[in-house]
Write a structure and sequence with these properties.
Length: about 100
């Protein structure tokens, strides 16, 4: 696979799996990073430990990456609690649709 997977200033992190919830986060919950601003839907919250697990890789999706980069092929990050088994998908929102 060749080419570039474009990054975006807007990155969405979505919960795609959680086996034993220990916080208020559920499958389908999401938050976005707009540049350096964190956006959480009204009435929702995010677990600070889950945020800490994913925060260091958000900058990867704000940048262009080779299409065969591991994070483009498998954009998933696990939460820190093995029993909870929280899995989050990190996606760059295309510039055309970003607000």
């Amino acid at each position: 696979m060749t080419g570039i997977s474009p990054g975006s200033p807007v990155v969405r992190v979505t919960v795609v799996r959680i086996d034993r919830p220990r916080s208020t986060m559920r499958v389908g919950d999401w938050f976005e990073v707009h540049g350096s601003r964190l956006v959480i839907p009204e009435g929702k919250s995010i677990c600070p430990y889950a945020f800490a697990a994913v925060s260091s890789v958000i900058v990867l999706r704000q940048s262009d990456l080779p299409a065969d980069h591991w994070f483009v092929r498998k954009p998933y990050i696990c939460g820190p609690d093995a029993e909870e088994n929280l899995i989050m998908k990190v996606e760059a929102i295309p510039r055309e649709t970003a607000t």
